[in-house]
Structures are given as structure tokens and as C-alpha cells.
Amino acid sequence: MKTTLGIKRKLLLGVSLFFNLGVLFVFKYFNFFIETFTEVFLLFGRPISYSSAQLILPVGISFYTFQTLSYTIDVYRKRIQPTEDVVSFFAFVSFFPQLVAGPIERASNLLPQFQKSRIFNYTKSVDGLRLILGGLFKKMVIADNCALIVNNIFENYTDYSGSTLFCGAIFFGFQIYGDFSGYSDIAIGTARLLGFDLMKNFNFPYLSKNLTEFWRRWHISLSTWFRDYVYIPLGGNRVSNSRLIFNVLVVFLVSGLWHGANLTFLFWGLIHGIVLIVTVFVGKYTKLEALLETQKSIFIDFLRIGITFFTVTIAWVFFRAETITEAFGYLDQIFSKSLFSMPQGNKKFLFFLILYIFIEWIQRDRSHLLDISYIKLKPIKYLIYYLTVFMIFNFGAELQTFIYFQF
């Protein structure tokens, strides 16, 4: 009887995985694999004709697909009980604040919240409004201003010096951070106004001292998803060195593919995977990481943060570029003699971004950018709020589409 039940459970899990991943594959990756397949044949002198599927990618399909998958897998693993409340289940899948770009919620956290009554909580609502205000600042002042600069530099990268291109990569790093963490803050804040608690998705990632820490702070809902449903099932880090390398590379290649059907995303994931492997083994065999952690030096901390930020910034070039060729061309132009020249334009905004990171450094132990509940003087609090609103209205750039809406 138990054997039959086990087979039935595995069959149902298989059906769920096949359906969810099948829909994701058809809409997002079908044309990519067909084109790659034909290019391989072309390399061997065997050109074949094909016709691509003209499909419109549903907004946010990667996010709610992973959300439903986590529910199915957690039920199969008996970590949660299957719900009999159909309305609550579909509300969990289609909860509007985080539907199109996350955070990718777990059923164990969000689903029970639909099944209990909610009472207005003034403190949570105020914090929700702070999150929304901070998210709007990140999106409209940081991300959208960066986007105007980034689009011009990347589209005309052959016309600029290496120093300007490096600044362009930095601007893109802040664009995607302000854009995505801004959306997450707005989503979490909106949910909080409605009495729901969503998981934190960003935790000041550009203050990370190594790449491992970066992935604990960046897009937390996705990185923990891959950890729980891909990395650990593959064996995690309790395996041989060769298997550990394989596990890490699989996770980051899949993560790259999740972001889009393009070789640039795969290469972006590969860079992070390789650097993370090197970081892990250097820490494991030289004890360098443990030694650095014991050093109470702000200089060493800033140095480590700078190295990590530089690594992430270089990888962002592949994320932003349209093709692998363009990405390598961009990097080749960066690492030329002109890297040491004075960058062209936008120096004031670069200084503003440095100032913004300094503010994040001050807030690094708080839950989010505008978590200023520790300030007791109300005039100071309201000055900060009004100044933020003023900057949104006066320095917010032309509206740009959220980057992660394409995923």
C-alpha cells in the first residue's frame, strides 16, 4: 500500500513538474533552443530551415511558475500540507503585489496568511509606506536616471573611452539594483498595507564582502529557491570537490538561463559560478576568508567590498549586452589604455551614487533604506520623508520599464 502511494505521489509530482516547466519552456525557451540547434548544424555545414513560434511571453511567467513549483515540491516532501482551500491557493499564486516580479514566495509563508483574518496594524502600515517611498526613490531617481545613461553608452560603446564604459557598467549595476529592489520594496510595502508579510528580497547587496555574501543579499527569494530545490537535492556542499564544482556550476547556469533565453545570461551565470568556486576553495584551503573575517579593519572591509563590487560589475556587462560578441567588445574597450583617462560626462550623478551607497552603509543594519524608526525626533523623520518625495518629483527621470518584467 505504501509503495503504491509512493508511486502515485511521484507520478503527481512528475506531472506538475512537466506541466509547469513545459509551459515555461514553450513560452520562454523554445525559439532559443531551435535557433541554437540549427546553428550547431550550420557549423558542420548542414544548414536546416526552421520557423520560430510567434509567442507573446506572459509577464512574470518565471516568477509564478517557480512559486507553484515550490508548493508542489514542498507538499511532496511533506513540509507542508496540501490546501483544500482553492480560493486561497489561487490567491497565493496570483497575489498582485508580487505577481509579475517577485519576491518568489513560499507557500509555507504566504498561503496561511490568506486563511486567517487580518486586523489593521498601524506600525506595519507605516513601515509599508516607508518601503513604498524608498522603492519609488530607488526606481525613479536611481534606476531611471541610470537607464538613460546606460542605454546611450551600451548602444554606442565603440565611441567611448574605457573609463566611460566602466562607468557605464557601474551605472547599469545601480540601474538593475534600483529597478529590481525598488519593485520588491514597493511590492512588500503594498502587501504590508494589506496585512501580509512577504519575504525580504534585497539586503544592501553592494555592501557584500565576497560573492557568497552577495548571493545571500541579492534577489534572496530566487537564490534561496535554487539553494533549496536545486543545489541541496544535488548534494549541496557535502560532496567531493569535483561534485561541488558541478553543483555550483549547474545552479548558476540554470540561474542564468532562468533570466533569459540568451547566451549572454548563461555566460553571466558561468562567471558567477566560477568566481564563487574559486572563492570557496581559496577560503577552504588557505583559511584566508576566516582570517579576513577576524580583522576589525574598515580599510580591509572596504577593499573586500570594492573587489566584490568590481567582479559583479564586470559580470553585469554580459547581463546587459545583446550578444556575447558585444559583451567581449565592450570589455575589450574597457581594458584598454583609455581606462585611465577621465570619463566623459555624468560625473555628478556618479558622485550621487557614491553618496547613495554611503547612506546604505549607514542603514546597513536596518531592514530597509527608509527604516528610520530609530530616529526619535519627528521633525528629522518628516524632513527625510519630504526630502525623499521632493527628489522623486524633481529628479525622477523619464519612466523606464521595469527590467525584470521581461523575465
From TrEMBL:
The keyword NAD appears for this protein: no
Keywords from the UniProt entry: Acyltransferase, Cell membrane, Membrane, Transferase, Transmembrane, Transmembrane helix
Intracellular or extracellular location(s): Cell membrane
Sequence similarity: Belongs to the membrane-bound acyltransferase family.
Record protein name field: MBOAT family O-acyltransferase
Topology class, membrane: Multi-pass membrane protein
TM regions (residue ranges): 12-34, 54-73, 244-261, 267-286, 298-319, 345-362, 383-405
Gene source species: Aquimarina rubra
Domain of life: Bacteria
Chief location: membrane
UniProt keyword Lyase present: no
Matches recorded under Pfam families: MBOAT
